[in-house]
Design brief:
alpha/beta, Rossmann fold, 7-stranded mixed beta sheet, 4-stranded antiparallel beta sheet, 20% strand, disordered N terminus, binds adenosine-5'-triphosphate, nucleotide-binding, transport, AAA+_ATPase, ABC_transporter-like_ATP-bd, Peptide ABC transporter ATPase
Length: 386
Amino acid sequence: MSEQTTTPTVEGTAPDGDVLVEARGIKVHFPIKRGVIFDKTIGHVYAVDGVDLKIRRGETYGLVGESGCGKSTLGRAILKLEPPTDGSVIFDGIDIATLEGEELRRKRQDIQMVFQDPLSSLDPRQSVESLLFEGMKAHGIAKNAKEARPRLVELLEAVGLPEAALAKYPHEFSGGQRQRIGIARALSVNPKLIVADEPVSALDVSVQAQVINLLEDLQEEFGLTYLVVAHDLAVVRHISDRIGVMYLGALVEEAEADDLYAAPLHPYTRALMSAVPVPDPVIEDRREQILLTGDLPSPSNPPTGCRFHTRCPWRQETKCETERPVLRVPEIAGVNPSQRVACHWTEQIASGEIERHAVTATATEAGDLDTGPDSLMGPASISEAL
Ligand SMILES: Nc1ncnc2c1ncn2[C@@H]1O[C@H](COP(=O)(O)OP(=O)(O)OP(=O)(O)O)[C@@H](O)[C@H]1O
């Protein structure tokens, strides 16, 4: 077995409470094919490479990381839309890999998805009534549109749209309204878990806040559990109870949202957080940005050992290059035991025993984290809008 496919073991305290969904050692490796006749596999994209996580009933788990780190693929694997290369997903106590046919269809009702771009996820030829009714019919919730109508009106009301919307088509709505329809559609089959993949990144900032607030209200009203995949730290912070930070197909840190933002421990999370502007001008003045050297490596050829070592300002020879760190509870006084970090040197970095290497390159030369509108930092105003 190659180094890339070694599943990191997980140590430490798993989150307690009523777990709705658990991913165990999930891997999704996409084959890279070449050749017209023989279609030879010449390598793999290690999109997700050994992820363990648990999501408690009623909580919002935010998954964050740079573009291409495997967030969406992990979300799709949890939905069984992407068959995992290895590992299992336990949903409500059942391994969903063992389900087929009718059983899988019934379980699918419990897990729904909200997509980034509602325009491409909603069939433009279908009216809102037809879009909302479709899932209800497939899952035997209503036989015909007439029978479904009171429920459809209720759904629209829940997402803040009038009954008149039922007769209209997706192109007749604004982006925010279309996302509301996408959410109503997910809700139409009474799911337990909603996987929302970048649910607001295609929307204007002011509309983003409205949709995030709507998701929160609906969670309370319907007792929903959310897995929110997003690259915008401000969005994830606002909506999540817990957050997992992904880097090149693996979780590098997991913590309660407040703990993660107050004291990130993994060097990658520290770098992400250090790039977020602070509204307080005094603190902002003192904010020291941690620059990352080098580009994000390709997931088809990830670095050996710690995936992050090629860009880590605290890397140490030779352990970081040779040993893949496990996700573990660090031995640091006062750290919440639900905070887990995949770094060999968490304690030494926190105590200052290991110092950060001096970065001589400028932000641009160093392959600094993108701070544009689509970056992990997102538009500055979203924090204010929420
Ligand atoms: N069907 C596929 N076949 C081959 N490679 C794929 C496939 N789907 C995703 N990938 C690759 O897997 C890696 C992870 O992709 P994924 O979309 O999960 O990342 P992400 O973190 O969600 O990024 P983004 O925010 O840009 O969507 C990327 O390198 C991507 O190119």
